[in-house]
Amino acid sequence: MSEPTTISEPLLRALNRMRSVLLDPEQLVKAVASGRQRGTQPAWRRAELRYVDLKSGTHLQITTYDDTQAFTANHPVGDASALDDLLEVPFASWHVDTVAERQELLVTKPTTARVTTTLRQAQGADAAAVGAGAESVEVSRSHDQAKERLLPEDDPVFVELGLSDKDGRLKPSRQAKYRQVEEFLRHLATSIDDARAKGQLRAPSAEEPLRIVDLGCGNGYLTFAAQRYLTEVRGLPVVVTGVDVKEQSARHNTDVAARLGVSAEFVVGSIDGVVLDQRPDVVLALHACDTATDDALARAIGWEAPLVLAAPCCHHDIAAQLRRTPTPSPYAMVTRHGILRERLADTLTDAIRASLLRMSGYKVDVVQFVESQHTPRNTLLRAIRSGGAVKGGSVKKEYDELIAGWGIRPKLGELLGL
Ligand SMILES: C[S@@+](CC[C@H](N)C(=O)[O-])C[C@H]1O[C@@H](n2cnc3c(N)ncnc32)[C@H](O)[C@@H]1O
Predict the structure, then answer these.
(1) Which atom of ligand 1 lies nearest, measured to the CA of 249?
(2) From the CB of 228, is ligand 1 less than 6 Å away?
(3) In the list 203, 230, 262, 347, which could disulfide-bond 236, CB 3.0-4.6 Å?
(4) Are 216 and 234 within 8 A, CB to CB?
(5) Distance (Å) from CA 247 to ligand 1 centroid
(6) Confidence of residue 65 (pLDDT cuts 50, 70, 90)
(7) Is the CB of 288 under 6 A from ligand 1?
(8) Is the CB of 278 under 6 A from ligand 1?
(9) Does 174 contact ligand 1 (Cβ within 6 A)?
(10) What is the CA(244)–ligand 1 centre distance, in A?
(11) Ligand 1 touching residue 216 (CB < 6 A)
(12) Which fold has domain 156-415?
């Protein structure tokens, strides 16, 4: 890949240029639109475009996503109407991969776009420098292609981490973990785009890479996958730090980093006390146990991290409190049954976390990040710091009423002094 070049230009001009690339089946590999422009409510959360070969000829396949479902439709080459409709949708960003280059279009103002282009094959003197490392990409049109992987199973990261065997085949026993990491990465990628489009996350550079910390990193599956995907696939300079109480985890991960030849730091320590050299831009926590997720959220808030993605694990704390305290009327019919009480505890815990993040100046989404057959712990809290004045009054009142009513003391509330 060449050094990226960035220009600012009128949005319409940038979209028009992109339109001709999207309409060219010989050029387009894949395009993704996501996020929303400030003050707008796009009909779709995300859209993906690629060409597929069907019996009736080559078609532009457009998959659009709302909050719960994906909708796929195929349009014959030359029929631009669906694409034109999609270009009207106020997405915050477009990523377009062609055989020759990668383009990232970020809408920075209502009528302005910042377009970053990275050539796949360096030209002339650069080509010699890039040498055998130069990337080449082919258009894949297989219709029944499986859902596209962000990082394929045979990626060296997964082989080194033992999710895949030495021939790059995913081990049957590790499929759920692979899927979890893959889906978390998907959310990380779209959230970074979204936060950048909203102007809440700075553009990283080689000198000032994006600082990502993975709290409760365990064996570093997510840490290494995020590093690999963001740098190699997305061309974003990042530095990753993993934090875990277990010394064995830091030893293991440091060895893996050396074998992969990537620079990543692993710190032994508890989330609530860890000291980082610099504040992170992105805080991740994937299944940090029980209230370790609260520690992670409290640290992220304290660091004023622009982007936080946390998939909570077990929820023992509130579940235990619910068992000890009298249930407010008329909810005894729910807490009478153990399984329902546990589920209620899960829901209360994450609703409270989302509410406390909102009070702390974040815009929060609570979404499912992976299908439940891969893990029942499949809720993701996605928080982007808005930095604006917090309308805390009504949210705080709601929070106070809820914890008083149920007689509970949420750990995150205590950590934040709320
Ligand atoms: C269920 S594992 C998840 C590991 C990893 N994030 C993943 O998804 O593969 C939870 C990890 O969090 C670590 N952990 C739990 N509480 C912690 C704390 N308070 N501080 C640091 N690490 C913690 C554990 O040692 C463990 O490695």
Answers:
(1) 27
(2) no
(3) 230
(4) no
(5) 12
(6) confident
(7) yes
(8) no
(9) no
(10) 6
(11) yes
(12) Rossmann fold (3.40.50)
Predicted TM-score (pTM) above 0.85: no
Q: Residue 124: is its pLDDT beyond 70? A: no
Residue pair 63/70 in contact by the 8 Å Cβ criterion: yes
pLDDT of 143 reads 53
**Distance between CA atoms of residues 406 and 410, nearest Å:** 11
pLDDT in tens, 239-250: 999 999 999 999
42 Cα: distance to centroid of ligand 1 (angstroms): 37
Cβ atoms of 52 and 59 closer than 8 Å: yes
Evaluate: CB of 249 within 6 angstroms of ligand 1. Answer: yes
Q: Is the CB of 289 under 6 A from ligand 1?
A: yes
CB atoms within 10 A of CB 263: 10
User: How many angstroms separate the alpha carbon of residue 280 from the centre of ligand 1?
Assistant: 18
Looking at residue 123, what is its pLDDT?
43
| HSE-up (13 A, CA, CB side) for residue 324 | 9
CA distances from 76 to 44, 54, 55, 62, 257 (A): 22, 10, 11, 11, 46
What the block records as the tokens of 295 is: 């520690």
The strand order across the sheet containing 282-286 reads: 264-268, 238-244, 210-215, 282-286, 307-311, 379-385, 362-368
Work out the pLDDT band at 90, boundaries 50, 70, 90. very high
Residue bearing the CA closest to ligand 1, atom 26? 218
- Tell me how far the alpha carbon of residue 118 lies from the centroid of ligand 1, in angstroms: 37
pLDDT digits (tens, 9 = 90+) for 172-223: 899 989 999 999 999 999 899 889 888 899 989 889 999 999 999 999 999 9
Q: Tell me, in angstroms, the distance from the centre of ligand 1 to residue 111's CA.
A: 44
DSSP notation for 156-219: HHHHHTTSB-TTSPBPGGGHHHHHHHHHHHHHHHHHHHHHHHTT-SPPP-SSSPEEEEEET-TT
Contact 238, 210 (CB under 8 A): yes
Q: Which two tokens stand for residue 347?
A: 């829901």
Per-domain residue ranges of the chain = 5-133, 156-415
The answer to whether the CB of 26 falls within 8 A of the CB of 8 is no
| Distance from Cα 259 to the centre of ligand 1, integer Å | 23
Q: What does the pLDDT average to over 118-146?
A: 51
| Whole-number Å distance between alpha carbons of 356 and 416 | 8
Mean pLDDT of all residues in 81-89: 94
